[in-house]
Amino acid sequence: MKHYYTVGMAGHIDHGKTTLTKALTNIDTDRLKEEKERAISIEPGYAPLQLGEEMEVSIIDVPGHEKFIRQMIAGVAGIDLVLLIVAADEGVMPQTAEHLDILNLLGIHQGLIVVTKSSLIDDDMKELVELDIQDQVEGTFFEEAPLHFVDSVDGVGIEELKTTIKETLIDLPARDARGAFRLPVDQVFTVHGQGTVIRGTVYEGKVREGDHLEVLPARKQVRARQLQVHHQKQEEGRAGQRVAINLGGINKEDIARGDVLVSTQYYSTTTTVDISLDTVKALQFPLKQRGYVKLHLGTAEVYGKIVFFDRNELSEEGGEGILCQLRLDNPVVTKRGDRFILRRPTPVETIGGGEVIDPAGGKYKFGMNTVHMLEKKREGTPEDRITDALREHKLITVPKAAKETGIEEEEAENIIESMVTDGTVLRQGDKAVLVNVFDELTELLEEALKVEQEKHPLREGKDRAVLLQEFPQFGKELTSLVIEQGVQQGIFKKAGAFIATGDFVPGFPDKWAKRMKQVVETIIDQGMEVEQEGFIFERAGLPEDYKQELKHFLIRTEQVIQLDEKHMISKEAFLNAIHTLREETGDTFTLQDAKSVLGLSRKYLVPFMEALDSTGYTKRQDDVRKWV
């Protein structure tokens, strides 16, 4: 199975990140005119790194200039491995140190150190550079990281670096594509003839061409019309992939960097977030209670106030695990466990970062009681952990839920039963599912069926096998359970291999009903000697797509009988001919007898007689037919 990873590059301006990216991928990620003119990266650049069939890797070249720190944070959010780039002739710069802080605070734990422009220094200088770097990264996740000296122009050390990147990624767990789809948007643009396109790294779950999605926080409904991964058309995008999605139903002006594209109502927006905050080693200035801050979360950048419950000021010494709250000016999309960065708007500096404890924080009183409550919330109650497991796996057995959460099986059973009692969980055999997940999938299935029924009103519904594939984030087993229960409740109905909404009756679409009735009336009027169906359809002016649909509908509803591949006759004419033939013949009859009775030419008579055999009215024995 192929795994998907994102590799970021971070470092000071002009330390060779873009040149190294080109050496690794043969792609120049400086795409903007301003970047070419000023020789610096303003927006994150992206390129595919070829490391073998078993993995798909995207490289993000994030800006290094201090003024572009916002884009840098947006670039590294969601990466699996980071390359810390240091130029051999300059060493670790102050901006590099800030990048180190940000990477640590975002919870990134895997990194490699790359010294570029190594041909500019001799072996003695290499030793000094290495010692300087080791001193600077002490206490960070780069402390034990492999260090490579490369020259991106001459290609020295590039293949060795590729090998290390591959070996490091192989040992990393792949991102989980089972969760609900979430993609923070970092680029929005238009393509002539196609409309609005967004780009971003898929944080969680999967997205398929044709999926109905939602843009948060604006709650705009859109559809994924086309997907591309590094300019290659794909049917599906998965967690860890860098994806471009052509969206239907939205203008470029209605979506922006920082918005989040989701596939489920599981995600919500919030302006009050409980957090655990770790600060940088030393703040330049103290941070006052309700001080103004800038939150960087995924690709979003939102201003707000910080509220402390155990202090009135955060001193320059900072701290770790400070339990506090953000009250934001604008809504964000987040969930428990998401990482973030806080910066001070003025004077500008990175304050710290940490993780979201509760995306739906309340208004709490100042004091240690609130701090203790937040401590418990940070640890997570057994119910919280069971709920998280149910959200992730959608349908799960009690033993698996217990194993996933580290809770004793008996306690897990009791918790789930309690949740069943209070109406938040459904038991389906030996498995459990959250009611809101079950209801959400029911709504999604209804919506998918209505779209299908509107598009193909003459069909009996949507093929069940296709429907089971349509929502992979929920899994086939849960989708099948929801369908079966929906059928029992009358929400859905079955017709052979097809599923439809409970109130759906196949029929002529309003726009073409008059012309379709004209087809039926023509077939009835022409009796047994009907002209070719193609001529009838053509004269009625039906669209090509509807011709076969109408034919199958009329046959399925027994309004017509298919005589041969080019002729249909009305069921009424067919039965009348049978009645007349029975009246005028004995137990057996020949083709000539039928011709004498019905007066039909061989063109119509032969397929009519064959239809008698195939429908079970007669049984042929040589040239004689016997009524059954």
TrEMBL record:
<dbReference type="InterPro" id="IPR005225">
    <property type="entry name" value="Small_GTP-bd"/>
</dbReference>
<dbReference type="InterPro" id="IPR036388">
    <property type="entry name" value="WH-like_DNA-bd_sf"/>
</dbReference>
<feature type="domain" description="Tr-type G">
    <location>
        <begin position="2"/>
        <end position="173"/>
    </location>
</feature>
<dbReference type="InterPro" id="IPR027417">
    <property type="entry name" value="P-loop_NTPase"/>
</dbReference>
<keyword id="KW-0648">Protein biosynthesis</keyword>
<dbReference type="GO" id="GO:0005525">
    <property type="term" value="F:GTP binding"/>
</dbReference>
<dbReference type="Pfam" id="PF25461">
    <property type="entry name" value="Beta-barrel_SelB"/>
</dbReference>
<dbReference type="GO" id="GO:0003723">
    <property type="term" value="F:RNA binding"/>
</dbReference>
<dbReference type="InterPro" id="IPR057335">
    <property type="entry name" value="Beta-barrel_SelB"/>
</dbReference>
<keyword id="KW-0963">Cytoplasm</keyword>
<dbReference type="InterPro" id="IPR009000">
    <property type="entry name" value="Transl_B-barrel_sf"/>
</dbReference>
<dbReference type="InterPro" id="IPR000795">
    <property type="entry name" value="T_Tr_GTP-bd_dom"/>
</dbReference>
<dbReference type="InterPro" id="IPR036390">
    <property type="entry name" value="WH_DNA-bd_sf"/>
</dbReference>
<keyword id="KW-0342">GTP-binding</keyword>
<dbReference type="GO" id="GO:0003924">
    <property type="term" value="F:GTPase activity"/>
</dbReference>
<dbReference type="Pfam" id="PF09107">
    <property type="entry name" value="WHD_3rd_SelB"/>
</dbReference>
<dbReference type="GO" id="GO:0005737">
    <property type="term" value="C:cytoplasm"/>
</dbReference>
<keyword id="KW-0547">Nucleotide-binding</keyword>
<dbReference type="InterPro" id="IPR004161">
    <property type="entry name" value="EFTu-like_2"/>
</dbReference>
<dbReference type="Pfam" id="PF03144">
    <property type="entry name" value="GTP_EFTU_D2"/>
</dbReference>
<dbReference type="Pfam" id="PF00009">
    <property type="entry name" value="GTP_EFTU"/>
</dbReference>
<comment type="function">
    <text>Translation factor necessary for the incorporation of selenocysteine into proteins. It probably replaces EF-Tu for the insertion of selenocysteine directed by the UGA codon. SelB binds GTP and GDP.</text>
</comment>
<dbReference type="GO" id="GO:0001514">
    <property type="term" value="P:selenocysteine incorporation"/>
</dbReference>
<dbReference type="GO" id="GO:0003746">
    <property type="term" value="F:translation elongation factor activity"/>
</dbReference>
<keyword id="KW-0251">Elongation factor</keyword>
<dbReference type="InterPro" id="IPR015191">
    <property type="entry name" value="SelB_WHD4"/>
</dbReference>
<protein>
    <recommendedName>
        <fullName>Selenocysteine-specific elongation factor</fullName>
    </recommendedName>
</protein>
<dbReference type="InterPro" id="IPR004535">
    <property type="entry name" value="Transl_elong_SelB"/>
</dbReference>
<dbReference type="InterPro" id="IPR050055">
    <property type="entry name" value="EF-Tu_GTPase"/>
</dbReference>
<dbReference type="InterPro" id="IPR009001">
    <property type="entry name" value="Transl_elong_EF1A/Init_IF2_C"/>
</dbReference>
